[in-house]
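Usage

Read records sequentially. Each one opens with the input sequence:
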Amino acid sequence: MKSLSAFALILLISVSALADDLIEQISGEIVTLNSETIRLNSQEATLVRTASTPEKVTLEVPVEMTETVCTAYAPVTRSGYDSYHCGSDYFPVRVCNGGGYGPRNYGGYGRFGGFSGYGYGYGGCYTNNQAQPRFCSWQESTCVSTAPQTSTALKSVKIRFKNTKLLGSETETYSFNGRQVRTDHQKATYAIQGLETRGSIEVKGDHGTIVIRNR
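and closes with the structure output:
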Protein backbone atom coordinates (compact mmCIF):
# COMPACT_ATOMS: atom_id res chain seq x y z
CA MET A 1 0.00 0.00 0.00
CA LYS A 2 2.86 2.35 0.84
CA SER A 3 4.55 1.48 -2.46
CA LEU A 4 1.35 2.25 -4.39
CA SER A 5 0.96 5.61 -2.60
CA ALA A 6 4.59 6.50 -3.30
CA PHE A 7 4.18 5.59 -6.98
CA ALA A 8 1.01 7.70 -7.22
CA LEU A 9 2.81 10.64 -5.59
CA ILE A 10 5.75 10.37 -8.02
CA LEU A 11 3.35 10.13 -10.98
CA LEU A 12 1.42 13.20 -9.75
CA ILE A 13 4.65 15.21 -9.38
CA SER A 14 5.82 14.16 -12.85
CA VAL A 15 2.51 15.11 -14.47
CA SER A 16 2.49 18.44 -12.63
CA ALA A 17 6.06 19.22 -13.73
CA LEU A 18 5.22 18.28 -17.32
CA ALA A 19 2.17 20.53 -17.26
CA ASP A 20 4.21 23.42 -15.85
CA ASP A 21 6.82 22.97 -18.58
CA LEU A 22 4.11 22.86 -21.23
CA ILE A 23 2.48 26.05 -19.92
CA GLU A 24 5.86 27.79 -19.84
CA GLN A 25 6.59 26.74 -23.43
CA ILE A 26 3.21 27.93 -24.68
CA SER A 27 2.63 31.04 -22.63
CA GLY A 28 6.07 32.39 -21.71
CA GLU A 29 6.14 34.81 -18.77
CA ILE A 30 3.07 35.74 -16.73
CA VAL A 31 2.44 39.49 -16.71
CA THR A 32 -0.16 41.34 -14.66
CA LEU A 33 -1.49 44.38 -16.50
CA ASN A 34 -1.23 46.82 -13.61
CA SER A 35 0.02 49.97 -15.37
CA GLU A 36 -0.48 51.91 -18.59
CA THR A 37 2.91 50.91 -20.05
CA ILE A 38 4.53 47.52 -19.53
CA ARG A 39 7.71 46.13 -21.03
CA LEU A 40 7.75 42.40 -21.67
CA ASN A 41 10.85 40.22 -21.42
CA SER A 42 9.93 38.12 -24.47
CA GLN A 43 7.58 38.17 -27.42
CA GLU A 44 5.30 35.56 -25.82
CA ALA A 45 3.47 36.00 -22.53
CA THR A 46 0.36 35.22 -20.52
CA LEU A 47 -1.44 38.47 -19.72
CA VAL A 48 -3.49 38.76 -16.52
CA ARG A 49 -6.15 41.44 -16.37
CA THR A 50 -7.54 42.55 -13.02
CA ALA A 51 -10.08 45.07 -11.81
CA SER A 52 -7.30 47.69 -11.56
CA THR A 53 -6.06 47.20 -15.13
CA PRO A 54 -6.30 50.49 -17.09
CA GLU A 55 -8.66 50.66 -20.06
CA LYS A 56 -5.67 51.20 -22.36
CA VAL A 57 -2.36 49.38 -21.90
CA THR A 58 0.75 49.79 -24.06
CA LEU A 59 2.98 46.75 -24.30
CA GLU A 60 6.62 47.15 -25.28
CA VAL A 61 7.55 43.85 -26.89
CA PRO A 62 11.02 42.57 -27.87
CA VAL A 63 10.37 40.94 -31.24
CA GLU A 64 12.85 38.87 -33.21
CA MET A 65 13.30 40.54 -36.61
CA THR A 66 15.03 38.79 -39.50
CA GLU A 67 16.51 40.60 -42.46
CA THR A 68 18.53 39.53 -45.46
CA VAL A 69 22.08 40.90 -45.36
CA CYS A 70 24.94 40.70 -47.81
CA THR A 71 27.78 38.41 -46.70
CA ALA A 72 30.12 38.70 -49.70
CA TYR A 73 30.88 41.32 -52.35
CA ALA A 74 32.70 41.05 -55.68
CA PRO A 75 33.85 43.66 -58.21
CA VAL A 76 31.98 43.88 -61.52
CA THR A 77 32.69 45.97 -64.61
CA ARG A 78 30.04 48.36 -65.90
CA SER A 79 30.10 50.28 -69.17
CA GLY A 80 27.98 53.07 -70.52
CA TYR A 81 27.41 56.80 -70.81
CA ASP A 82 27.69 58.13 -67.28
CA SER A 83 28.58 61.63 -66.17
CA TYR A 84 29.42 60.54 -62.59
CA HIS A 85 32.07 57.96 -63.51
CA CYS A 86 33.15 59.19 -66.94
CA GLY A 87 32.62 62.94 -66.82
CA SER A 88 30.89 65.07 -69.44
CA ASP A 89 31.68 67.13 -72.51
CA TYR A 90 30.02 70.51 -72.87
CA PHE A 91 28.82 71.89 -76.19
CA PRO A 92 27.75 75.48 -76.71
CA VAL A 93 24.17 75.86 -77.97
CA ARG A 94 22.96 79.21 -79.26
CA VAL A 95 19.36 80.03 -78.36
CA CYS A 96 17.48 82.95 -79.90
CA ASN A 97 14.13 84.48 -79.10
CA GLY A 98 12.17 86.54 -81.61
CA GLY A 99 10.25 89.72 -80.78
CA GLY A 100 6.53 90.08 -80.11
CA TYR A 101 4.24 88.01 -77.92
CA GLY A 102 4.91 84.31 -77.85
CA PRO A 103 6.98 81.60 -76.23
CA ARG A 104 9.93 82.92 -74.31
CA ASN A 105 13.05 81.26 -72.94
CA TYR A 106 14.37 83.28 -70.03
CA GLY A 107 17.85 81.82 -69.93
CA GLY A 108 19.53 79.92 -67.12
CA TYR A 109 21.12 76.49 -67.21
CA GLY A 110 19.79 73.12 -68.05
CA ARG A 111 19.00 70.93 -70.96
CA PHE A 112 16.30 73.22 -72.28
CA GLY A 113 18.03 76.51 -71.46
CA GLY A 114 16.01 77.47 -68.39
CA PHE A 115 12.44 78.61 -67.74
CA SER A 116 10.06 78.95 -70.69
CA GLY A 117 6.78 80.84 -70.84
CA TYR A 118 4.75 83.36 -72.75
CA GLY A 119 5.26 87.13 -72.85
CA TYR A 120 6.37 90.16 -74.84
CA GLY A 121 9.98 90.27 -75.96
CA TYR A 122 12.31 92.25 -78.14
CA GLY A 123 14.30 89.26 -79.32
CA GLY A 124 17.83 88.28 -78.57
CA CYS A 125 20.21 85.37 -78.45
CA TYR A 126 22.46 83.77 -75.86
CA THR A 127 24.77 80.77 -75.61
CA ASN A 128 23.97 77.86 -73.35
CA ASN A 129 26.34 74.97 -72.54
CA GLN A 130 24.74 71.58 -72.98
CA ALA A 131 26.31 68.59 -71.18
CA GLN A 132 26.87 65.26 -72.92
CA PRO A 133 27.96 62.31 -70.68
CA ARG A 134 31.04 60.42 -71.89
CA PHE A 135 31.24 56.68 -72.48
CA CYS A 136 33.59 54.62 -70.34
CA SER A 137 33.96 51.49 -68.19
CA TRP A 138 34.26 51.38 -64.41
CA GLN A 139 34.26 48.88 -61.56
CA GLU A 140 31.87 48.70 -58.65
CA SER A 141 31.12 46.20 -55.89
CA THR A 142 28.01 44.06 -56.01
CA CYS A 143 26.57 41.57 -53.55
CA VAL A 144 27.14 37.93 -54.55
CA SER A 145 25.99 36.14 -51.38
CA THR A 146 23.27 36.77 -48.79
CA ALA A 147 22.16 35.24 -45.51
CA PRO A 148 19.39 35.86 -42.96
CA GLN A 149 20.36 37.81 -39.85
CA THR A 150 18.16 37.94 -36.76
CA SER A 151 18.17 40.63 -34.09
CA THR A 152 15.73 41.82 -31.44
CA ALA A 153 13.81 45.07 -31.88
CA LEU A 154 11.56 46.70 -29.29
CA LYS A 155 8.07 47.15 -30.74
CA SER A 156 4.93 48.53 -29.09
CA VAL A 157 1.25 47.67 -29.32
CA LYS A 158 -1.75 49.20 -27.57
CA ILE A 159 -4.42 47.00 -26.01
CA ARG A 160 -7.81 48.53 -25.31
CA PHE A 161 -10.43 46.82 -23.16
CA LYS A 162 -13.83 48.05 -24.31
CA ASN A 163 -17.32 47.62 -22.82
CA THR A 164 -16.09 45.36 -20.09
CA LYS A 165 -15.23 45.84 -16.39
CA LEU A 166 -13.96 43.49 -13.75
CA LEU A 167 -15.01 43.76 -10.14
CA GLY A 168 -13.27 42.84 -6.91
CA SER A 169 -10.97 39.87 -7.33
CA GLU A 170 -12.17 38.94 -10.83
CA THR A 171 -9.40 38.26 -13.34
CA GLU A 172 -9.05 37.34 -16.98
CA THR A 173 -6.05 35.70 -18.66
CA TYR A 174 -4.96 35.92 -22.28
CA SER A 175 -2.21 34.36 -24.34
CA PHE A 176 -0.15 36.90 -26.24
CA ASN A 177 2.55 36.64 -28.87
CA GLY A 178 4.26 38.99 -31.28
CA ARG A 179 5.88 38.05 -34.56
CA GLN A 180 7.58 39.77 -37.46
CA VAL A 181 5.15 40.14 -40.36
CA ARG A 182 7.69 38.51 -42.68
CA THR A 183 11.43 38.49 -43.33
CA ASP A 184 12.79 41.92 -44.28
CA HIS A 185 9.59 43.59 -43.03
CA GLN A 186 9.98 46.25 -40.32
CA LYS A 187 6.57 45.74 -38.69
CA ALA A 188 5.32 43.13 -36.23
CA THR A 189 1.95 41.46 -35.91
CA TYR A 190 0.35 40.38 -32.63
CA ALA A 191 -2.14 37.71 -31.59
CA ILE A 192 -4.24 37.59 -28.42
CA GLN A 193 -6.46 34.72 -27.38
CA GLY A 194 -8.63 34.45 -24.30
CA LEU A 195 -7.66 31.63 -21.92
CA GLU A 196 -9.93 32.35 -18.97
CA THR A 197 -12.43 35.17 -19.48
CA ARG A 198 -15.66 36.21 -17.81
CA GLY A 199 -17.55 35.58 -21.03
CA SER A 200 -16.99 35.31 -24.75
CA ILE A 201 -14.75 38.02 -26.20
CA GLU A 202 -14.10 39.60 -29.56
CA VAL A 203 -10.56 40.60 -30.53
CA LYS A 204 -9.97 43.10 -33.33
CA GLY A 205 -6.68 44.33 -34.74
CA ASP A 206 -3.23 42.79 -35.00
CA HIS A 207 -0.82 45.70 -35.53
CA GLY A 208 -0.80 49.07 -33.77
CA THR A 209 -3.95 48.74 -31.62
CA ILE A 210 -5.84 45.66 -30.42
CA VAL A 211 -9.38 46.03 -29.06
CA ILE A 212 -10.82 43.37 -26.73
CA ARG A 213 -14.59 43.55 -26.30
CA ASN A 214 -16.94 41.34 -24.30
CA ARG A 215 -19.81 40.08 -26.38
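Summary fields computed downstream for this record:
- The longest helix spans residues 2-27.
- Residues 20-69+149-214 form one domain.
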